[in-house]
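Format is sequence with structure; example below:
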Amino acid sequence: MNKRILVNVFFLLSAVFINRGYCQQILWANKVLGYSSENRPVQFGHAFRAKQILGIPNKLPDFGNSPCAWMPADPDGRNEEWIKVGFDKTVALKQVAIAENFNPGAIARVYAYDESGKEYLISDAPAGQLTARGRMLRIFPKQQNILANAVKIVLQPSKVSGANQIDAIGISDDVKPIEAVINIAKGPLLKTKRENMGPAINSQGQEVAPIISPDGKTLFFTRGNFSGNVGTPERQDIWYSKLNEKNVWGPAINMGPPLNNAADNAVTSISADGKTIYVINVYSPDGSMALGLSRCFQTKSGWTFPKEYKINNLRESVTASNKGKQVESMETTVSPYGNVMIISVERNDTEGKKDLYVSFLQPDDSWSEPLHLGNVINTADYEGTPFLALDNKTLYFSSHGHSGYGAGDLFLTRRLDDTWVNWSQPENLGPVINTPLWDAYFNVPATGDYAYFSASEKVSGQEDIFRVRLTPETRPDPVAIITGLILEAETDKPVRSDLIAEIKKNNEVFTKATFDPETGEYRLILPLKEVYRITAAEKGYFPFSEEIDLSKDTTLRNIRRDLYLKPIKAGQQIRLSSTMFAQSSAEVIRSSYPELDRIVAAMTNYPAMEILLEGHTDNQGEVQKNIKLAEDRVQQVKKYLLSKGIEGKRIQTKAWGPAKPIASNLTEQTRMKNRRVEFTILKI
């Protein structure tokens, strides 16, 4: 596993910066109109190509070699090299800024063009070697009234030893010097500081890849170059630390076999309930390892042997330098809900080296072929160490391709829609977190208060694990944590059960979990702003559903819900949801179909089962109308069951109207409980 993952980003946009009370319009090139040559060091990806000059600077204000810059094919060629770029608007030209990120000084001439294509020579200066590593070259044309929408630069590579790279070209209608800026998230600018996790976790070896459990009480991490590892000290093992009652992290413990062996081992993600962990590589019983992903389940006696979690067509990935060669490493984050995975891997559609991809869980319990996340996030440099937060939309990752502070910075971006390829512009997490050295592997628990990450600056040995208090701007959206037991209704005995959380408005399965009395309470973590239906199911019991309304919540919620299952037997009465029908209507709303489908499933599994459907209302309005409404409702439920193949002779109906209330009719909240349909198992 690589300890370092870097990222680049490619932007096709113009930018407006506001400073000191006035607006300076800065346009960055958004199209290549022509060029003499471009460097193509590898077959796949777009490193150093002409398109890399477009958009805002990817390297500046830092300097140095970057595949996100245009570089001519021959670094020291005798012939002149040139590139011409266009802009999406015409401006009264006052300034041209050229971001020379590596080996500056080769630019000999600069031309501007108006809408008619007329050419203006705006700079003619001798090219020559400079001592600076890079610079923002600014040209202020002496000519007046040039209405420019294109610029051409001419280089003399032979005048400057080594590769000449251009990060970006900008123009402005103002003489205020154009600066390259880092897109910093607001939060880290506040007064806070990062904390080294101390000797309980960090050693003289290497500590990277922290994975914090959603409840914030267990920290998994990878330790290398350490004599206490299962394999050789140079290899990496999985370790963990527990937070005790005094809010202090205990001494790190090696997880031991079977998770740790003679190869490199690392946890990459953990489920929302903390009972499933995902680890890199595919484990074989003989101790050998292969590229891929595995998962382990918590049991009473410990973690199970890692089992492969297949990713379709992962091994069709190629390296840019050798078509058909299998990728040597990858990094992943499995959504805490277990249905989406973000992968850092190199494939033949990469922008550069490793890019971020998305994969979706399939009905056969495998993962779909990775889909590129797009060029808002991915660039011609490295992208890696992804972490998808519990809100299922905030993604943290490390990058060397967006403007930053050094050798790999941490960024955040937020998913904008359900395509998973449309993301907000990445924001640098700022100088409190990012340093001139390597920073990566961001991880956040459900509370969103602290983040845990790996860094290289001010460490006790090699890389260490740090934490930092997050600000509202850098936190994921808040969530609700639902915990509890699943019990048999008649005995209060815990019952091992499967759980499903569905989004009520569209009946979409959002996440699944399992309650096992031997491993403790169930835990579901759900993003806010939705109404969910939670269903517990186990063989021999009728599934139980309960709604969790989070549609109006705005802050973290902790909810305790014990669920009760009723055995399937003659005489058992089961109450259906009180929100199955619209107000004063007999029509079954679509969101109630899954609940009725569970009746269908039970009657299918028990072919001799016969039931009685009973309809009830509140006492508002005329009694006869309420009885008629109750009759219409049970008939609609019966009609639905018949449409699913259940024989009519197995279903009896009875309409009670307001005659059998189970709650007061004094308030709307209690009257809702009286508006219900119940069914009783008559025979089984």
Q: What stands out?
A: Residues 229 and 237 are 6 Å apart (CA to CA). Helices lie at 593-605, 623-643, 668-674.
